[in-house]
Queue: 2 jobs
Job 1
Amino acid sequence: AKSSGRDGFKIYDQTRPEKSVNKLTLLEEMRTGIENGEFFLEYQPQYNLVSGRIVGAEALVRWQHPVLGRLMPGEFIALAEESGLIVPLGRWVLHEACRQNRQWQDDGLTPITMGVNVSVRQFRDSGLISDVTAALKDTGLEAGYLELEVTESLLIQNADQAVRLMDDFRRIGLKLAIDDFGTGYSSLAALKSFPLTRLKIDRSFIRDLDFDESDRSIARAIISLGRELGLNVVAEGVESAKQQAFLASCRCETVQGFHFGRPMNATRFGKLLAMTLTP
Ligand code: C2E
Ligand code: CA
Ligand code: CA
Ligand code: CA
């Protein structure tokens, strides 16, 4: 979504004509939409490249708006951040993602890690740790099956607080991923300072792998750096067999992208997971 003037807020989506709605109206609708259960999650599978099994999911939020239809995060997350509504929304996302992951385990499916995106505002809000512990306690999910995805800019902007918070999260057993790795200005500093468990290579380095020699070098270097540091590495945005083959040749452990599966609803994901046999 992009801003258009003082209170106009442009909603843009390829599947329907461009609409302009009032920003304050959308905000108010977001507030009630959270209470009315208009938000839902889709799950994108993450695969181990060697075994071919699903090892994780990333939870991605969508908004089923009563008039505008389905809205994607790009159309409302910035507004949620700006207004602070990301705090109650993020709390709901955490709870729902944990509940669903626990449900799949109760259904007898292979346990997987659930990645949840955390934004700067949630991170600054001192309630994040209690939201996380409440979500785990209420749903009965073990901490080791929850992974928080944070960006390097978030970490660097709030460095002192972030180190403390991340240490607390690691102490309770959570996984911590650095998202969109390589796009910020302090990627290497972040690796050094924070107790991360996973590194997600940004899609922009994967997109042009087939023809961009420097992107190939960068991807290869990030994968071996991750390995040296004992971090799991995920390549995001893998869209072709050719990209997959290259990543396999670099011994990249985990992959995520349209080539393997698009974000999908919980029912479809559960069926897909059921086809992944227990090792
Ligand atoms: P992200 O965390 O980098 O999430 C990955 C995005 O890339 C998702 O878009 C996903 O659908 C898309 N994607 C996955 N594989 C491919 C591929 O092979 N090709 C291409 N072109 N795209 C791919 P989505 O769902 O629109 O989410 C966009 C962003 O919105 C996310 O980027 C994340 O930053 C944010 N977001 C999503 N859900 C949440 C949430 O619950 N809380 C917060 N704070 N942010 C969220
Ligand atoms: Ca993410
Ligand atoms: Ca990402
Ligand atoms: Ca490039």
Job 2
Amino acid sequence: SSTDQVMVHFINQDGEKLTAIAKEGETLLEVVVNQNLAIDGFGACEGTLACSTCHLIFERDIFQKLDAISDEEMDMLDLAYGLTETSRLGCQVCIKKSMDGLTVQVPTEVSDVRRQLEVGKQS
Ligand code: FES
């Protein structure tokens, strides 16, 4: 039914607003992948908490209502570029009805932690 549909907007790296109809319970990563939204390099580790490319910046009022952050997410988020006070990882945040109309911002700089680790290994 249409009642479990939640409209979410993403502002991508180019400043374009991408709008998606999401379902309750989907993660923001799943929304991007399932709807093929044009966000470069997003979700490189497919939600396994290994990359931080799903870093999203939330509006403060919505951010405060999100479920508590896990230690694992916190550790990975710490490695993301352009971290803000309202940053979370999109693969760890599930859509709720109360998020209808949500706008999240993709940081202009994304870092794939796995790539940093590889670079570290080589040097
Ligand atoms: Fe890699 Fe979220 S998709 S940490």
